[in-house]
Specification:
Chain lengths: ~400, ~400
C-alpha cells in the first residue's frame, strides 16, 4: 500500500507523511509549507521569513512537492485585507492548492493506492482519485461543520460560510474514509449522519523530547501559575477563562494567569482587566512553549470546541496537569484527579471552583507530575505513526486500475 | 412435553462454537424439568467426524441424542438417513425446535413438521442478520433465503431470538416473520480447578497482567482488527487471543499487531478448553468482545459467571444486558474509543471488582440454565396453546400457504 499526503499548509500532515515513509508506504508529500528548507530557498525573503518558523521535515527529496502560491496568497491576504477579505483569500488559496494537487495526481505515472487530503483542499483531488480507483481519505482536523455551527458559530461572512460548508459536504461524500483526531470529533461526524464505519479517529502526539519536565519544580514564592496556550478566541473559551480567573483572584489573590498565543476575536476582553496577575505574550515557537509549560503549574483549556488540543499532550509530557473542558478532544488523555480534570464546557462556576482548588492545593497538583508524564508516554508522534499505519493498512485495498 | 431438537452439529463437536453449547445447556435443563427431550444431529466435527454411534440413541445428560451421517454436499449437512428418521419421529412429538438456518437439517425437519402437523419453533442462532448476509455469500444466501427459508419462516409457529438485537436484525430482512420470542442463552459457571495443570501458553499469559482476554472464533466478524490497534492506547496491557482460527486470519492479525507496534503484547493461544479456559476467565483483567455482529455472545455470560468484567461493542447481543447489569462496559469499537475505555478500566481496580460482582449475580439470577429453561418452557406452552386455538392455521392461510 502506498499513500499520497496533500495539505495546503502543514498542521500534522507531515507526521502522517513521516509515519508512512518509515513504513515504506509514502507515495508523496505535497504541501503548501515546504517540507525541506532548500525548497523555499528560491523564493522571496518575505515568504521565506513566514515559513521559517516551520522546522524542516526529514522526508526523502524525491517524495516532496511544494506549492508556494497558497502560503504566498494567505500572507498577502492577511497583510492587506480586513478579516473577511482575508478569509475569502484563504478559501481561494486552498482551492487553488486542491486544483494543483488534482492536476499533478492526474499526470502522475504511478498513481498511489490512497490519497490523504485535508478538508477544503480535497474536492478536485478526490474526483481525480476516484476516477483512478484510488482510495480517498479525508483528513478532517476539526469537528463536523454542523457541530461547529451549533457550538460556537462562525466569524466568516455568511456567503463564505455557505460555500465552505458545501465544499466540506461534497468532500465527505467523495471520501471513502474520514480521519479525525479524537473520539469527540469522530462522534460529531457520526451524529451528522456519516456512517460510523467510514469515520475513524487517530489521536495526535506530542514531541516528548522537546516537551519534558523541568529538573526541579519552580520555587513557590511566585503564586500558582495557570497557563493558557492558544488564540484568544471565543472558540477556545477565552471569555470563560477570564471570567473564571476573576473569581479565582477574589478567592486566591496570589494566583497568576499566563496567556500565550496569537491575538484573536476576543483579545479585546483583556483591555478592561489590566491586572498584574495576568501576563500576555504573543505566539511563541515550540521551544519557547516548552519553557512556558515548565514554568507553569497547570494548563487551562476551557474550549467550546477543540477537536484535539495539541497543547494537552505537550503539557502532560512536560509534567503539567491539565484542566480542560469536555469539548476538548484530548480530554481522552485525562484521568480525572490523577493527571488533570474535565469540567463542563461554558461553565464559569465549575472552572473557577477547580482553579481555586488547584491554587489552594499546590503540593497536590505538583504531586501529579509523574502521572502526567506517564500518561503522555502513549501520546507521542511515533505512537501516532504506528496507529495511523495500522489503520490505513486495514482500510486501503490495492488500487483498482 | 415431548420435544425434538434438530441441530446441524452437537456435543461433543465443541469446535463449532457457541450454538452447540447453548443447545446442549437448554436440552439438559429441559430434561431436568421432566420433559422428554431428544436431539437429531449429524456427526460432523470440523473437517472430520465425531466417531459416535450413528442412527442409534445415545444418552447424554438424560437427553436422547441421535447422530446421522452426512452426504455431499457436506457444507449443507445433508443427511438422507436423518430425513427418514424425522418422518418416523416427528409425528410422535408435541413440538419441534430447530436451530440455525441455511442448512439442510433445518429445512428437512421443517418440512417433516409441516407434513405431520406438529408446530415448530425456529432459532436462527445469529444467521438472520442483514449485515452478515451482505458481507458473506450475499447472492447464495439471499437465494436460499427467498427460496427455502421463506417457506420455513411462513410455516414456523414461532421464531426464537436470543436477544432484542437479534430480533430487531431479523425484522430488518423484510421477510414475513412468525411471532418472535426473546429468550437468552443460559450459562454454566466454569469452576476454577485449583492446582489444575494449565498449558504453558495460558500460564505465561496469566503471568502478564493486566491481561485483556479475547475468547472466541478468530474471525473477521469479531472485530479483532479494532482491538489490536486499540491496544496502543492501553499501556503495558497484554492481549490474549484464545480461539479457533478457521479462516486462517491469524497472519493478518500478526501483521496488524506489528504495524501497530504491539506485536510483543499480543499472544495467540489457539483454542482453549476446560481448566485453561476457566483459569483465563477467572484471571483476566477484562474480557473484550468487539464484534461487528454477534447475535448473543455466550462468552460474555461465561465471563460474567466467572466474575470477569466484560467490554463489548453495541453490536453484541448481550450489550444491553452488560449495560443494565453493570457487569462491564458497552463501548464503540473505534480503536481510540475502545482503547481509552480499556485504559480507564485497567486503571480502576475497584470498578472492576464491582463489575465482576454484578456479573456473577446477574449470570446466576437471569442466565442460570434452570431459569432459562423455564422461560423457554413458557414459549413452548404459548406456541402449543396458539396452535390448539387455531391461530397458526389462520395465519398460514392468510399468508397463502396450505396448512397440512
Amino acid at each position: 500500500m502506498k499513500a499520497l499526503v496533500t495539505h495546503p499548509g502543514r498542521q500534522h500532515s507531515h507526521q502522517a507523511a513521516l509515519g508512512l515513509q518509515a513504513a515504506g508506504m509514502l507515495a508523496g508529500y505535497w504541501s503548501g509549507v515546504p517540507a525541506r528548507a532548500e525548497q523555499a530557498g528560491r523564493f522571496p525573503a518575505l515568504l521565506r521569513r513566514r515559513l521559517a518558523r516551520y522546522a524542516a521535515v526529514p522526508l526523502k527529496p524525491g517524495r516532496v512537492r511544494w506549492f508556494p502560491w497558497t502560503p504566498a496568497l494567505r500572507r498577502l491576504g492577511d497583510a492587506l485585507l480586513p478579516a473577511a477579505g482575508a478569509a475569502w483569500v484563504d478559501l481561494f488559496a486552498c482551492r487553488l492548492f486542491d486544483r494543483w494537487a488534482a492536476g499533478r495526481l492526474r499526470r502522475t505515472p504511478r498513481p498511489p493506492d490512497a490519497v490523504i487530503a485535508c478538508e477544503i483542499s480535497a474536492l478536485a483531488t478526490f474526483r481525480i482519485a476516484r476516477r483512478q480507483g484510488i482510495t480517498t481519505i479525508l483528513d478532517a482536523p476539526s469537528l463536523h461543520h454542523q457541530a461547529q455551527d451549533r457550538l460556537h458559530g462562525t466569524t466568516d461572512p455568511p456567503a463564505l460560510h455557505r460555500r465552505v460548508t458545501r465544499i466540506k459536504d461534497q468532500e465527505i461524500a467523495l471520501a471513502d474514509h474520514v480521519l479525525t483526531v479524537s473520539a469527540l470529533a469522530r462522534d460529531t461526524y457520526v451524529e451528522a449522519g456519516v456512517p460510523a464505519g467510514k469515520v475513524h479517529a487517530v489521536a495526535l502526539g506530542a514531541d516528548t523530547e522537546l516537551f519534558a519536565p523541568a529538573g526541579e519544580p519552580q520555587p513557590a514564592e511566585e503564586g500558582f501559575v495557570f497557563l493558557f496556550s492558544g488564540a484568544t478566541i471565543r472558540r477556545k473559551g477565552f471569555d470563560i477563562l477570564l471570567d473564571a480567573f476573576a473569581r479565582v483572584q477574589t478567592a486566591e489573590p496570589s494566583a497568576r494567569l499566563r496567556i500565550v498565543g496569537p491575538r484573536g476575536d476576543f483579545a479585546g476582553l483583556l483591555a478592561g482587566r489590566s491586572s498584574a496577575a495576568i501576563s500576555v505574550s504573543g505566539p511563541v515557537g515550540q521551544t519557547e512553549l516548552a519553557a512556558e509549560l515548565r514554568r507553569a503549574d497547570c494548563l487551562v483549556l476551557p474550549s467550546r470546541n477543540d477537536s484535539y488540543g495539541m497543547v494537552v499532550p505537550e503539557a502532560l509530557a512536560s509534567g503539567l496537569p491539565v484542566l480542560v473542558s469536555e469539548m476538548v478532544g484530548a480530554k481522552e488523555l485525562v484521568l480525572p484527579g490523577r493527571n488533570g480534570w474535565i469540567v463542563p464546557a461554558g461553565d464559569v462556576g465549575a472552572l473557577a471552583e477547580r482553579m481555586v482548588w488547584c491554587a489552594r492545593h499546590r503540593e497536590a497538583v505538583r504531586g501529579m507530575r509523574e502521572e502526567c508524564r506517564l500518561s503522555a508516554a502513549d501520546a507521542t508522534w511515533p505512537a501516532y505513526h504506528r496507529r495511523l499505519i495500522a489503520l490505513l493498512s486495514a482500510l486501503v485495498p490495492p488500487r483498482r486500475a | 412435553m415431548r420435544i425434538l431438537h434438530v441441530v446441524p452439529t452437537y456435543v461433543p463437536a465443541w469446535r463449532h462454537g457457541g450454538t452447540i453449547k447453548a443447545v446442549h445447556g437448554l436440552t439438559k435443563a429441559l430434561a431436568a424439568r421432566g420433559h422428554e427431550v431428544s436431539v437429531f444431529t449429524t456427526d460432523v466435527h470440523a473437517d472430520g467426524t465425531l466417531g459416535v454411534p450413528l442412527g442409534e440413541p445415545v444418552n447424554r445428560d438424560s437427553v436422547e441424542v441421535l447422530y446421522f451421517p452426512v452426504r455431499p454436499p457436506r457444507r449443507l449437512y445433508r443427511s438422507p438417513a436423518m430425513a427418514e428418521a424425522l418422518a418416523r419421529a416427528v409425528p410422535a412429538c408435541d413440538l419441534v425446535h430447530l436451530h440455525s438456518v441455511f442448512l439442510w437439517p433445518t429445512y428437512a425437519a421443517a418440512r417433516a413438521a409441516e407434513r405431520a402437523g406438529v408446530p415448530f419453533l425456529l432459532s436462527p442462532r445469529g444467521m438472520l442478520v442483514p449485515d452478515l448476509l451482505r458481507r458473506r455469500g450475499r447472492l447464495r444466501k439471499h437465494l436460499w433465503l427467498r427460496l427455502v427459508e421463506r417457506r420455513t419462516l411462513l410455516a414456523a409457529a414461532g421464531l426464537h431470538a436470543t436477544s432484542d438485537l437479534e430480533a430487531a436484525q431479523a425484522a430488518l430482512l423484510g421477510l414475513y416473520l412468525p411471532p418472535v420470542h426473546v429468550v437468552p442463552n443460559g450459562v454454566e459457571a466454569e469452576p476454577l480447578a485449583e492446582g489444575a495443570q494449565l498449558s504453558p501458553g495460558v500460564r505465561s499469559a496469566l503471568a502478564r497482567p493486566p491481561l485483556l482476554l479475547f475468547l472466541g472464533r478468530v474471525s473477521w466478524k469479531k472485530g479483532l482488527d479494532r482491538l489490536i490497534p486499540a491496544l496502543t492506547y492501553v499501556r503495558e496491557a497484554t492481549l490474549a487471543i484464545a480461539g479457533n482460527d478457521e479462516e486462517g486470519y491469524r497472519p493478518a492479525l500478526e501483521r496488524l499487531a506489528r504495524l501497530a507496534g504491539v506485536a510483543d503484547r499480543v499472544l495467540h493461544l489457539g483454542p482453549v478448553h476446560g481448566a485453561d479456559k476457566a483459569a483465563l476467565l477467572h484471571g483476566a483483567t477484562a474480557l473484550v468482545l468487539p464484534s461487528y455482529s454477534e447475535n448473543f455472545g455466550n462468552v460474555v455470560l461465561e465471563a460474567m459467571a466467572a466474575g470477569c468484567p466484560t467490554v463489548v461493542t453495541p453490536e453484541v447481543g448481550l450489550a444491553e444486558t452488560v449495560r443494565e447489569t453493570g457487569a462491564g462496559l458497552v463501548c464503540d469499537g473505534d480503536p481510540l474509543r475502545l482503547g481509552t475505555a480499556l485504559r480507564d478500566l485497567v486503571a480502576d481496580p475497584e470498578g472492576r471488582r464491582e463489575m465482576g460482582r454484578r456479573g456473577v449475580e446477574a449470570a446466576e439470577r437471569r442466565f442460570g440454565w434452570p431459569a432459562v429453561a423455564e422461560r423457554m418452557e413458557e414459549v413452548y406452552a404459548g406456541v402449543l396453546h396458539a396452535r390448539r386455538h387455531g391461530r397458526a392455521e389462520t395465519r398460514a392461510a392468510s399468508a397463502g400457504v396450505a396448512t397440512p
